[in-house]
Structure formats: structure tokens, C-alpha cells
Design brief:
alpha+beta, 4-stranded parallel beta sheet, 24 helices, globular
């Protein structure tokens, strides 16, 4: 019960959380680093008197369990819970101070019933809906991926190239919170700016104008979105995304149709975002044209590989003179370039542009009544004209898209919806939650959800009319599970009949310090922020953001590459602990690099840490018997310069440095270095140095155990026990440095003559320049160099150096 979470007291609460793992079967060194960092923070805050919540759980749904069922014939539940049991043992062996009574497992119906409940609340409020959409499809995992789960054109989990499909999917309306998610990026000072920048860019807010370009010879229009309406008079063609819905109508029956279809088929297999960012801009003419609404001129319509349906409207007005991408495209296909903004110097040649002029400086030209305006003023005036003339409207666009959560797999939260021929799509009543995953599911690995093959699951009565209905067979994206687990820890296991308790959540949330990898900057962290705001608006919590502080730790690499089985550079934590002990593993992870930097694995570094801990043990053991019963010396009773004076000063300096390094952005590597320096100083003294030194050393070694406790808790606990103190060292108060001992009373100052070192003197640390020069000139060795001369110049650095210029 040592790590049972206490109720918050007068010193306040501290919620320390490391991102929970997927139960893959074994922890890796990345886990060891992540969880050790969090554990040091939690243990330190406990010793500072805070009530600390540090829980652990399991992100237990996901495709690897289902793949294991297909390959090994083991049910996903069996595979998952066996892995959890093994990994829990591994984590306990590391000495992590978790409150295991609060352990949360997302594949437990007691947890995922609330996923379903939240989903139903979102359906009721229009935040969850179903629609046909072009979605990312992983052919290996045979499931849909959210945009955020496509990394460099490949599946984030298995790295298989992603294709697209048209499917009916459930979405969560994260775009309803786009403005708030963006605004709060400026109110999270405890987050790394790198992560906030990534989130701002992903949300991608753009203010601009939607403009309708009528298709020539048709009553239909192509709607474009632009942030630069001031350049509309320079449009020389339109470019559509390959999957724009109007492309078939634009090419039907035209000579260009075969070429367009071939182009679309070729680029369809490419990742859209990689395609858009490719250096080569490709396209094909549709054979159709549109009318520029402000000039009345016809312009050709092209299909381009760099235009995405997922941004704006899937169509762009091309202004080659003022957009570099359009310029490159126009140059390649010899399309017109029309200059409509002249630079302030008036030096741009419309006939000889070698690159686009993209600056918003200068004056408009060739733009009818708007000619002569500055671009900023023209943007507002032209946008108003477009609205007034009925050609479009001012609008805000976001790069962010609603979150598609449908997955065609078994091992996930069932989506609690029914399909009735009479009533249509019907939500499962709350009284019937949870909709439990059945056990009689075949795992073949073939496409489609295995839930469709379970008659017992598939068929259910309609709650509205009582007639036959079928259940939704898609399951939820596993990121739903991790989007609110940090809230559940605050109440579990006290509220099994409720998702959350507002008062309990208010005692602990937001999370004081969250620790996890940078790879979750856009995925999990954005979804967790969204869920927090939705749950707040349901009235279940009273916070706006889930995490006050965020620490993104670096990777563990070996031989210049991230540890992975495929690279053969994995270090087994179990073997490391069996050989050296858990404290060596912990301390190496903390000492080898700052937490936010990548850590290069070093076998020699591990050996060095192990030797250091051995030195600590031998140092304390040598003094335990010799120092029994000795009181600590009084501060005023220690003579300046005496050995016990050095011990006392080293102790307070170590307290100050370790405390500062922990408090100052978690510089654990330098904190461990300070401990090493402290041990070096204490090792200079022996039990036969006298009773005053002995008394000072006993106090200093007790302090060493306290300072070591967050970093190497097993050794620190044993040292504390050997000294005869009651357990636990981790529940003692953190030591406090006395400022009076942090500065030297006397200092040794080097003395230079004409810039060359000629001797040293000992003076009061607060001595004036005149006093220091007097002591230097009175020193016999210095007198021999001065030879009776009077220095014509003196350079003095307080307490560091004196240079006498003769």
C-alpha cells in the first residue's frame, strides 16, 4: 500500500502520468525511459509533500491482438490479458511507484461501455454522424485509417502503403471545436512549442473567400477557396483534385477523357499528401473551361496531382504569376502567366518572370477598378465585391477534417448503433450498454469485420419498433480509448456505475505532468483535447484542457538507429535488470541524455552507472557502524576550512543542485552528475577522521539516500534501512539547502603578473579589490616577482582572479 493515492491535502495535488502502453507482450527500452522519467517526477513531488496520483493501465484494443489470433489461433482476449500480466510484472520490477488499484484496461467492458455512452451523447448532439466518404485504407490491416494515422503515405502501425476507398463511415465532429483547439494552443505554457506548432499546423486555419467559376456551356459551377482574392484577375486556369466529383462530367465524351482517366488511375495509388508535396507538378487538361466571374474570360480546367480534396474545396484558381506551385505547373505546360501585382520598385517584367512574385507588397495592376490598391486593401475590397455580386462568400477553412472512427476489425469497442428496415439507423438504448464483444468470432484474416460472421451478435431487436435489426459491425478507432483514460484514473474503481465524477476529477485534473513520445503530437494529444472539451460540455468535468504540462521524451537509439527487432539492435530490459538491477537501468536512462533528447545506448555507460551505485553502497556501508549515535555538528561550531566544514558545504550544494535540476525543466542528467560529484567529495573522508567529521558524514549520507530516492529507489531504501531509519525513504521530506552554506567564506584566488600565473592567495570571498591586492603584494612569492614595483594597472574578477600589470 506504499503507493496508494492519498486524498489531496494542504500541500496540494500532483497528477503525474506517463502514456499507457499497448500490451504487446514485453516492455522495451523506450518504455523503461518513459516510465522512469515519470516515476522520478512523481517520487520527487511526493517527497515535496504533494498528494500524488501516478496510475498505470493498458491501451488494450488494437489490431496486433487480432493478427495474433489469425496467425497463432489464440483469442485476442487471451493474448491481451496474458501480455498484460507479463508486462505488469516487468513494470513492477522497475520499482515504478504506481497505484495499481487504479489500473485501467480499455478492453474491459467496464471501460468501453463508456466509450459507447460518450458516442451516444455525441450522436444526440450532432457530434457523431455517418456518411459516405473517400477514406484511407490499409490493405495489410484491412481497415480505415484517419488522416493523422497516415505517415509518409503509409500506415502508422504496419508501414504498408495506403490506398483510398469509398465507404460509409462514422465520424466524430472534431471540426466543431477547431477554433477552441487552436485558441488554446496559446494557453498551454507547459507544452513544448514544437508540439503546439504541429497542432496549429494540423488544424490549419485559413481565412479566405469561396468563389464560384461557372463551367462554360453549363449551369454548374466549380467552387474554389483562396486566401488571396487580390490575385483573382491573374487567374489563367483552374486545377482540380484527381478525385474531384465534377471531373467525370467535365471529360465525358471529350477526346481528353482517356488521358484524364489514365492520369487519375496512375495517381490514385499515391499518398495524397506526399503527392501534393512532390517536387514534380503534373496534370492533364480536361477539355473543358470555366468563366472567371470578375473578368468574364474563359480559362481552361486542368486536373493536377498537387490538389487535394481534403483541403479547401478540392479545386484551386491558378495564378502562376503569384504562386510558385502554379508557376511551375504553367511553365511545364506552357500556360499563360498574367502579372497583376507589381512590386514596390516597379521592376517586374510580365513577359520575363523567372519565378512567382508571392510577396504581399506593391500595387495591383490589370485589375479593373481595383488597380492601384495595395494587396491587403484589395483583398478586403475584392472579397466584398465577390459577395455583393453573388459570386461567392468570405469563409474560414481548416485543414482539420472530422475524425473517421469506423474500423473494420473485431478487437475494438463495438459502435452502439442498429439498422432497422422500418426505423433506419437507431442508437442502442443506454440501458443496454455495454454492447459486448462476442467470443464466437472466426479469425480468417479476410476482408470485412469478423463481427459480421457472428449471428448472435449481428441480429438484435429494434428498440423502437421491436422488429428485426442488425448491429453495426464496425468497431471504434482505438484512439477513442486513449482520448479520456486519464479522466477515468481519477475515479476508478470508485465509480463503476458512472463514467466520471466531476468532484473527483476536479481534485486531480488537469494532469500536472504528462510524459510521452513526440509521435503522438497530432494523433492522441489532439483527440484527447477534443474529448476533454466534449465531456466538459456534457457537464461531467470542469476543465478545458487535459494536460497542464507535457514532456516529450526522445527515443532510445543504438548504433544511430531507433531500437527495433528488424534492425537487430534491441536491448532486453529483463536481461539488463537481471544483470545489473533495476536501479542501474533507471539511472542510466536518466544520466545518458536530457529527457527531451534522443538517448544513444552505451554498454560502457551502463557499466559506469553500475560502478557508481557500487561506490555509493560501499561508502555508506563503511560509515554505518562507525557513525552510530553521532549527532550532527552544529552549524556555528564548525571552523571555516575544517574537514567537517567541507562535508557540510558539499551536502548543501548537492541539495541545491539536484533540486534546481529537477525543478528546471527536469534536467535529470545533470542532477545525477551532481550526485556523482557529491559522492566523490564524501569519499575523501574516513571514519577515523574524528568525531566531528563522523557526525557530519552521517548527516551527509542520510541526505545522499534522500537525494537518490527518486532516481534509484531500491538502493536508497536499503541505505535508509541500514541506517536504522523507519521506512520509507520515499515518504520522508525532501531536504532543503541552507543558502548560508552555498557560498564559500574563503576562496583561493590565482595571482597573475602581466598575464602569467605566478601564485595563489586565500582571501575572504567578500574581500574588496584593494584588500585582495594588498594580500597579493604581501605574499613572499609574489613579492619576488614584483620586485618593489608598483602595479600600474589591476584587473580583478571577484573571487576568481587578480592580474597585476607592472
Amino acid at each position: 500500500g506504499l503507493h496508494t493515492t492519498p486524498e489531496p491535502g494542504p500541500n496540494g495535488a500532483f497528477y503525474c502520468l506517463a502514456m499507457f502502453p499497448y500490451p504487446s507482450g514485453r516492455i522495451h527500452m523506450g518504455h523503461v525511459r518513459n516510465y522512469t522519467i515519470g516515476d522520478v517526477i512523481a517520487r520527487y513531488q511526493t517527497m515535496r509533500g504533494k498528494a500524488v496520483l501516478q496510475p498505470m493501465g493498458w491501451d488494450a484494443f488494437g489490431m496486433p491482438a487480432e493478427n495474433a489470433a489469425i496467425k497463432q489461433g489464440v483469442h485476442p482476449a487471451t493474448w491481451t490479458f496474458d501480455n498484460i500480466a507479463h508486462m505488469r510484472t516487468q513494470l513492477k520490477r522497475l520499482g515504478l511507484a504506481y497505484d495499481w488499484a487504479r489500473e485501467v484496461t480499455t478492453c474491459d467492458p467496464d471501460y468501453y461501455r463508456w466509450n459507447q455512452w460518450f458516442f451516444l451523447q455525441m450522436v444526440e448532439r450532432g457530434l457523431a454522424y455517418k456518411k459516405h466518404a473517400t477514406v484511407n485504407w490499409c490493405p495489410s490491416c484491412e481497415t480505415v485509417l484517419a488522416n493523422e494515422q497516415v505517415v509518409d503515405g503509409a500506415c502508422w502501425r504496419c508501414e504498408t502503403p495506403v490506398t483510398t476507398r469509398e465507404l460509409s463511415q462514422w465520424f466524430l465532429k472534431i471540426t466543431a471545436y477547431a477554433d477552441e483547439l487552436l485558441a488554446w494552443c496559446d494557453r498551454l505554457p507547459g507544452w513544448p512549442e514544437r508540439v503546439l506548432t504541429m497542432q496549429r499546423n494540423w488544424i490549419g486555419r485559413s481565412e479566405g473567400v469561396e468563389v464560384d467559376f461557372r463551367i462554360l456551356g453549363s449551369d454548374r459551377s466549380i467552387r474554389i477557396f483562396t486566401t488571396r482574392p487580390d490575385t483573382i484577375f491573374g487567374v489563367t486556369f483552374l486545377t482540380l483534385a484527381p478525385d474531384h466529383p465534377l471531373v467525370p462530367a467535365l471529360t465525358a465524351g471529350r477526346p481528353e477523357e482517356p488521358a484524364v482517366n489514365a492520369f487519375i488511375e496512375r495517381v490514385a495509388a499515391q499518398d495524397p499528401r506526399a503527392r501534393a508535396e512532390a517536387s514534380t507538378k503534373e496534370g492533364v487538361f480536361t477539355g473543358s473551361s470555366a468563366i472567371n466571374p470578375l473578368t468574364g474570360r474563359p480559362i481552361p480546367i486542368w486536373v493536377g496531382n498537387f490538389v487535394l480534396m481534403s483541403y479547401g474545396t478540392g479545386a484551386v484558381m491558378a495564378v502562376p504569376a503569384h504562386d510558385q506551385r502554379d508557376f511551375e505547373f504553367a511553365t511545364r505546360y506552357r500556360l499563360p502567366v498574367r502579372l497583376v501585382i507589381q512590386n514596390p520598385a516597379g521592376t517586374l517584367d510580365p513577359e520575363g518572370l523567372t519565378e512567382a512574385y508571392v510577396e504581399e507588397a506593391g500595387r495591383l495592376i490589370e485589375s479593373d477598378e481595383f488597380s492601384g490598391l495595395a494587396p491587403a486593401e484589395a483583398q478586403a475590397r475584392i472579397a466584398a465585391a465577390i459577395e455583393t455580386r453573388g459570386h461567392g462568400r468570405r469563409i474560414v477553412h481548416y485543414r482539420l477534417r472530422d475524425w473517421g472512427i469506423s474500423r473494420q476489425r473485431y478487437w475494438g469497442t463495438p459502435i452502439p448503433m442498429l439498422y432497422c428496415e422500418r426505423c433506419g439507423v437507431v442508437p442502442v438504448p443506454e440501458r443496454d450498454l455495454p454492447v459486448v464483444l462476442p467470443q464466437d468470432v472466426p479469425f480468417t484474416g479476410r476482408g470485412g469485420s469478423p463481427l459480421a460472421e457472428s449471428p448472435q451478435f449481428l441480429h438484435a431487436p429494434c428498440p423502437t419498433c421491436g422488429g428485426p435489426a442488425r448491429r453495426e459491425t464496425d468497431t471504434m478507432d482505438t484512439f477513442v480509448d486513449s482520448s479520456w483514460y486519464f479522466l477515468r484514473y481519477a475515479v476508478w474503481p470508485r465509480t463503476p456505475d458512472r463514467a466520471l465524477d466531476p468532484d473527483a476529477v476536479a481534485r486531480w485534473l488537469p494532469v500536472s505532468q504528462y510524459v510521452g513520445g513526440i509521435e503522438h503530437a497530432v494523433l492522441h494529444l489532439l483527440y484527447a483535447r477534443f474529448f476533454t472539451k466534449v465531456i466538459r460540455d456534457l457537464g461531467l468535468i470542469r476543465i478545458d484542457e487535459p494536460f497542464s504540462g507535457l514532456l516529450t521524451q526522445g527515443m532510445v537509439i543504438k548504433g544511430g538507429a531507433k531500437m527495433s527487432k528488424s534492425k537487430g539492435n534491441v536491448v532486453d530490459p529483463d536481461q539488463l535488470i537481471a544483470t545489473y538491477g533495476a536501479d542501474t537501468a533507471r539511472l542510466f536512462m536518466l544520466f545518458a541524455a536530457p529527457p527531451d533528447k534522443d538517448l544513444e545506448w552505451s554498454d560502457e555507460g551502463v557499466e559506469g552507472i553500475h560502478r557508481f551505485l557500487g561506490r555509493v553502497w560501499r561508502l555508506v556501508a563503511a560509515w554505518v557502524t562507525a557513525g552510530e549515535g553521532r549527532p550532527a555538528p552544529a552549524v556555528n561550531g564548525i571552523a571555516d576550512g575544517a574537514p567537517e566544514h567541507r562535508v557540510r558545504r558539499a551536502m548543501h550544494r548537492a541539495i541545491h543542485r539536484v533540486t534546481k535540476d529537477i525543478e528546471d525543466q527536469y534536467h535529470f542528467n545533470t542532477a545525477v552528475a551532481a550526485l556523482m560529484e557529491y559522492v566523490n567529495t564524501l569519499s575523501e573522508f574516513r571514519p577515523d577522521d574524528g568525531p566531528a567529521v563522523g557526525a557530519a558524514m552521517i548527516e551527509a549520507l542520510d541526505t545522499l539516500a534522500l537525494l537518490l530516492a527518486p532516481f534509484a529507489p531500491h538502493l536508497a531504501e536499503q541505505l535508509w534501512f541500514e541506517r536504522g531509519h523507519p521506512p520509507s525513504v520515499g515518504r520522508r521530506d525532501w531536504p532543503v539547502a541552507d543558502p548560508a552554506w552555498l557560498t564559500e567564506a574563503r576562496v583561493t584566488v590565482p595571482v597573475q603578473i602581466n598575464g602569467k600565473l605566478r601564485g595563489t592567495i586565500v582571501v575572504d570571498a567578500s574581500a574588496s579589490q584593494e584588500d585582495v591586492v594588498a594580500v597579493a603584494l604581501a605574499d613572499p612569492k609574489i613579492q619576488g616577482w614584483v620586485g618593489g614595483h608598483v602595479p600600474r594597472k589591476v584587473v580583478y574578477v571577484q573571487g576568481r582572479l587578480v592580474n597585476l600589470v607592472l
